[in-house]
Design goal:
- By secondary structure, the chain is of the alpha+beta class.
- The strands form four sheets. The protein has a five-stranded mixed beta sheet, with helices on both faces. The protein has a four-stranded antiparallel beta sheet with strand order 14-13-12-15, sandwiched between helices.
- α13 packs across α16, α13 crosses α17 and α16 runs antiparallel to α17.
- The N terminus is likely disordered.
- This is DEDD exonuclease domain-containing protein.
- One of its GO terms (molecular function) is exonuclease activity.
């Protein structure tokens, strides 16, 4: 059997991937398996275990005991024999670890694993499972040494060694460096520590595991803010003493998500600062995850909470549009007017818009000067005309009709339907630069191509949804019934959940009757932010989502930008690889 790779990791704590016991289970109802190992003293490499002792307890009552010597398949160092009293002769008839593991894994099933200095014992057990092909059940783990550091002060005990704690709690069994005796002593130490947890408002196994980890004083002082919150989808708002929103977030389980801010897993400096200023947490219950995500976006946009980084300023979006006049040019603007017919966006920053504009300038002969040109008066040409990069409409070297056909029309076509001519021109330029070994310049053009494709794909995708007056969709709810959404012009107008076993039509009719009135408008995002419409699109495009009703066809141009998604992915991947190479 090939040896599986083993890497010792930190204890899982409240990781959602951890199996076994519900973290909300009260401590008095939790089944604990207290384990101790004796080893040959080496690193956890899949062997080296000489003895296992484990005691199963619940509510102070002993439920079972497992104890066995283990043949490590290697000599025992003399100092280990002196320390534990275990000799080589005692281990010769003992079973190897691969024969002991099945019984041990069954013994710890559906229990919280407890050990003193747990990373050491758990490390040996995980390594043994990996080496011999057994699946480690990844139970929740409680470390009595770590818990003692949180519960007991230096005035009470000078250190957190098992012998010291056993003397402090006056355990019935004294630790002797034998596995079962040490496990029994750890049981009494565990019970003594649990008795001290009540004063810290720690009542569940999840709270105990997190309490044992290294949380900050602010997290411990403010953890009461997570009490009493609903375990439903929705939005949570951390508010300051003056009721200012400090931070807005969303979750399918508000209570669990907010509680995670007060655990050792939360290490972000800005969140620590936010928690220090927070005085209460407000919960806004939502019908389902989509409504929660949309409400989060709207609240962040409305209040711009100081500790949120994303989605705070949707009004800062910019557009790239073709100006009016006989010789139009590209212009970056904040807003679109009803008379604008050729535009691209929205872009999240002016830099992104400038990159896309540079891509169009590389592909088509659009003028780049900002002069207002006249059909009667000639204006001196700039250097770009001398370099052959501009057809010099300022000097009337090209008629308005010729300029429109060669320069303006490709932009209109690329944004409204097919960007093929622009893509071909940019790919040709990249190939030419690569053949001349001008790779850095080719990479610049590639980034411009990606910016053009990213913007055109995004805008056409948004326009396909926001042009629909009304759309109703349903998705199976986790607990039965259907999650329902009513979308008007790309804006979530209503949401709800139909009860299990009941036809969703009455619920949908009630949602429609109370839904927000949404009027259409100009552009690809007439009634909502681009981010909101994109969240709705992601929800609608999931395989399990069903379209119930739609006021008109939902489609994208057959020859549109969407067909270049693979090319966009390749360009972005190449740019990412180049960046990582430069940084290394």
């Amino acid at each position: 059997m090939a040896q599986a790779e083993y890497v010792q990791e930190a204890l899982a704590g409240l990781d959602p991937a951890v199996g076994g016991v519900d973290p909300a289970l009260p401590l008095y109802a939790t089944t604990f398996v207290v384990v101790d190992l004796e080893t040959t003293g080496g690193a956890p490499d899949g062997g080296g275990i000489t003895e296992i002792g484990a005691v199963k307890v619940r509510g102070g009552e002993q439920l079972g005991v497992l104890a066995t010597l283990v043949n490590p398949g290697q000599p025992i160092p003399p100092f280990i024999t002196v320390l534990t009293g275990i000799t080589q002769a005692m281990l010769v008839p003992a079973p190897p670890i691969e024969q002991v593991l099945p019984s041990f894994l069954e013994f710890i099933d559906d229990a919280v694993l407890v050990a003193h200095n747990a990373p050491y014992d758990v490390g040996f057990l995980k390594a043994a499972c990996a080496k011999h092909g057994y699946r480690w059940p990844n139970p929740r783990v409680l470390d009595t040494a770590a818990l003692a550091r949180r519960v007991l002060t230096r005035d009470e005990v000078p250190n957190r060694k098992l012998g010291t704690l056993a003397a402090y709690f006056r355990t019935a069994t004294q630790p002797t460096h034998r596995a079962l005796d040490d496990a029994k002593a750890t049981v009494d130490v565990l019970h003594g520590l649990i008795g001290r947890l009540g004063g810290h408002r720690v009542d569940t196994v999840g709270d105990a595991i997190e309490f044992a980890r290294a949380v900050t004083p602010t997290q411990r002082r403010k953890r009461h803010l997570a009490e009493g919150l609903p375990k439903v989808p929705g939005v949570y708002i951390f508010r300051a003493a003056d009721d200012r929103p400090l931070y807005v977030g969303t979750s399918v389980d508000i209570a669990t998500r907010v509680r995670s801010y007060f655990t050792a897993g939360e290490k972000r400096a800005r969140i620590s600062e936010m928690l220090a200023a927070a005085e209460r947490v407000e919960a806004v219950e939502c019908a389902h995850s989509l409504e929660a995500e949309v409400r989060e976006l709207r609240l962040i946009a409305a209040h711009a909470p100081p500790y949120n980084r994303r989605s705070k300023y949707p009004e800062r979006m910019v557009w790239l549009k073709l100006t009016d006049g006989p010789y139009p040019r590209l212009s970056i603007v904040r807003d679109l007017s009803p008379t604008d017919t050729a535009y691209l966006g929205p872009f999240t920053s002016r830099r992104a818009a400038e990159l896309a504009a540079a891509g169009f300038h590389d592909a088509v002969p659009l003028r780049q000067c900002t002069h207002r040109l006249s059909l009667r008066t000639v204006t001196p040409a700039c250097a770009l005309a001398e370099l052959g990069r501009c057809p010099a409409p300022c000097e009337h070297r090209i008629t308005p009709e010729e300029y429109d056909d060669s320069a303006a029309a490709p932009f209109r076509t690329a944004t409204a339907s097919d960007p093929q001519p622009v893509v071909d021109a940019l790919l040709t330029r990249i190939d030419a630069l690569s053949r001349e070994q001008r790779y850095e310049e080719a990479a610049v053009v590639r980034s411009r191509l990606a910016a053009v494709l990213r913007a055109t794909v995004r805008m056409q995708r948004l326009a396909s949804l926001t042009g629909i007056v009304e759309l109703a969709a349903a998705r199976p709810a986790a607990r039965g019934g259907w999650e329902l959404a009513l979308v008007r012009h790309g804006r979530l107008a209503g949401a709800g959940v139909s009860p299990p076993g009941v036809h969703p039509r009455p619920t949908l009719n009630a949602i429609r009757a109370t839904a927000e009135t949404v009027s259409g408008g100009h552009g690809p995002v007439p009634a909502a932010t681009a981010e909101e419409s994109e969240r709705i699109l992601s929800w609608l495009e999931r395989p399990e989502t069903r379209l119930v009703e739609i006021s008109s066809g939902w489609s994208s141009p057959a020859g549109g930008a969407g067909r270049f998604r693979d090319l966009l992915a390749k360009a972005e991947s190449a740019a990412s690889h180049q960046l990582s190479t430069e940084r290394s």
